[in-house]
Design brief:
This protein is of the alpha+beta class. It has five domains: 34 residues, no CATH class; 183 residues, 3-Layer(aba) Sandwich (Rossmann fold), CATH 3.40.50; 215 residues, OB fold (Dihydrolipoamide Acetyltransferase, E2P), CATH 2.40.50; 312 residues, no CATH class; 90 residues, Nucleic acid-binding proteins (OB fold (Dihydrolipoamide Acetyltransferase, E2P)). It has 26 helices and 38 strands. Helix 14 runs antiparallel to helix 25 and helix 20 crosses helix 24.
Length: 985
Amino acid sequence: MIAERKRLSSGLTVTSKVFVRSRNGGATKIVREHYLRNDIPCYSKACTKCHQLLQADAKGDLAKMIFSESPLALKGSSNGHYVVVDTNILLHAIDLVENINCFYDVIIPQTALEEVRNRSLPIYHRVRGLVKSEDKRFAVVHNEFNEAAYVVREKGELINDRNDRAIRKLCTWYDTHINRDNSKTKIDIVFVCNDRDNRKKASASGIKAYSLAEYIDLLPNGEELRDSVPQDDQDFKADKTETMFPEYYSNARLMGGIRNGTLYQGIMHISSYNVLEGQVTVPAFKKPLLVIGTKNLNRSFNADSVVVELLPKDKWREPSSTIVDESTIGENDNPEEDNDDASTNDGPTSLISDNERKMLANEAIRSTAASAEKKLLPTAKVVGIVRRSWRYYVGQIAPTSVSAEHGHSSKSCFVILMDPLLPKIRIQTRKAHELLGQRIVVAVDTWPSNSKYPQGHFVRTLGEIESAEAETEALLLEHDVEYRPFSKSVLDCLPSEGDNWVVPEKLDGDEQLKKRVDLRDKLVCSIDPPGCVDIDDALHAKPLSNGNYEVGVHIADVTHFVKPGTALDNEGAARGTSVYLVDKRIDMLPMLLGTNLCSIKPYVERFAFSVIWELDEDANIVDVRFMKSIIKSREAFSYEKAQIRIDDATQTDELTNSMRILLKLSKKLKQQRIDAGALNLASPEVKVHMDSETSDPGEVEIKKLLETNSLVEEFMLLANISVARKIYDAYPQTAMLRRHAPPPATNFEALNDMLNVRKPGMSVSLESSKSLADSLDRCEDPKDPYFNTLLRIMATRCMMAAEYFSSGSYGYPEFRHYGLAVDIYTHFTSPIRRYCDVVAHRQLAGAIGYENLDLSHRDKSKMEMIVKNINRRHRNAQFAGRASIEYYVGQVMRNNESEQEGYVIKCFNNGLVVIVPKFGVEGLIKLEVLGDVNSADFDESKYELTFNDHNGKKRTIGVFDKVQVEVKSVKDEVTGKRKAQLSLK
């Protein structure tokens, strides 16, 4: 590569990079030009030169002068200062950077911002939000186009080293530009960077460089901000120098091992019932790899992308039969100390608790039995971390880790996280006593090999434990749900008419609007849950003269308002989905669209995207048409009101008759799906009723499904299938689709074994979805009507999760949706609350020639990014919704102890797991609560636990047994979460 620089007659400087690439014996010369300017402003009001430059420019904007001419002075200095931050400060300390009492007049190098964009899009958007804030005075300085600040990458120089040098050059340019040439007053340029080598080089160049901790200490209010400074490995000092955990392999060894098949990469899944055990699924093995024990888990978090090495076959084990939770591990540990045991020949043991030793010994004994051979799983150890799943975590300070002398000096303490699968975090804080009893947010900074626990820092407090506001915000943070208000740039994309927007009277003036089909004469109505305000679907039906039926599904035309590439579209894509909690809804799109302009309200005209079929008497498709339309809904029904209207024989109007047609055809569509092998699975769904005045939770009930629920579901499914076929035909490489992979047979091994032992003659078959559905239908217990539902709940947990994908990622046979028993499927019917549907709408509009499809939905790599995000957001929204129900069910039961019917779904050697259908809750009953611990006998082959209860009575309880339990709500002293506590009667 040869770098050249020359000045053009226009005053611009162009840097050329010349590459010579050899192909098939020939040489190709490639020239890449990079243009530089000498008129990029510094944005400082103290700079006379840039002020005059903008005044002289006819297009100059003096509002660009952002930085104060009298900025804040640091301790020990009489001069004000501007701050230059590097990439890692933005990535790892964004909360501190955003803090209203910290970081003013901040120079963000273009180099750093581009790195942030590549590594974390959410943080990038937060930085862009800071730049738009007038109070904090942040500016992105385009050093990559500034002739005086640009640096060329030197031969053999790493890109990170070049970028560090570019930021140092920018600091030097600012100091020269402002203080030596143009400034009214002396202003210090301060470089904040946590890289010691980079700081050392900066200081050698005359730049004032500080670590983040040093910089915070120099601020006038630094004392109150010190707790929020991220720690690094150097901040942590263990009492001893020995290594507690095995060191990770080098990157070269990891990559080489993965390539040659001696190492395997996958996602770590920590067991829900044993935090000392994890599983990693890899393509090379039919069964997951089992990782047992703290040493083998080797500092990995749940959901980390890890590299593992297989252990010898004589160390292969069964999954654990012991319940171990985080609260029982190191409960007496001192946060100021780490190593308390000596190492042995087998390696370090200081991190191993008595509970872990007992568990490992017990599992080794179990796995030596010949009868256990078929249940053995290959075991492995973690030797590297590819990508951390670290995020902001919510928890509470462990009271036992706060000493009486914990004063205003910085002391270590433990934070117990709300997620029970994660280890406690050690933080340093001066405010430990103040934070007791509070929900707090922490970030993980590092986990050195010589520390038993990860190191982190305090971010902020959410409020008192158990307050509705704190608990709701906590669950949103825990599940990474974006809940902050929409920004001004997003709201600026909305129609200027606001609430007064109406369908234009004349459509002739717009080429696209002329293509809309007027369907305002159709008897359209919507059927939704009670109180629904974001109505995104409606239906109509009418008989045709040939004996067939016209049926229409009409979906809110969200893409009329949400145009590709806008701030509104980017925000919708980032959020991915709306999130429904018990007491609120977190919208994907601003409320003006979701509950007003796009919502198919009754009696008003709305733009829609319509799918209209001609169906015969047996609900077979004769013809299908797709069109952008204008509709006017005649009525908005709840499921119950629609059912009452259909069932009322005195109602004979056209609208009611059309709903009866829909119901009749929906039953035939459902039967067609069942005949094809569609699954009817189950989950313990409940509804929490809220008091309309006080917003307090009232009662819990199991959701009741009516025929009208199925009516709507069947036609939404039919629309999704029809649209999927259309967009795949038009865009075979990038169609937005949804698939559901068939479950591996190994997923059902344990369930089938339980059935074989506990319910002889029953089993589930996996040859196809049809055989699975039929076998579930056969598993009936005449003595217990609920058993079949229980089995379907357990079968659901053995299934694979459905996922969004771009059609070019798989072959057509892999498109199949196993649960629905269809060959192709998408989501089209809820664009108000799902971004997948927005993309499907745009692709369908392109497929029917309504408008050209945006490049972002025709590009495979961009579609891959979209589906990856919406899969994650969809999953997180589901978990957040369940967590909200769990919290409010706990509140309902708070003063309402009751005896309920429960069913055992798991047995361990030290406890039982019981599900209570009435409340949809699942609870662990530990052996010490059941009775005498020393009397217990766990028969794994029979899935039974025998023990003496507290009255001395011998009891034997196994999987599928119906039991009476006392249910009450208790506050978990470890996590602070209120949960249902179960005890046997």
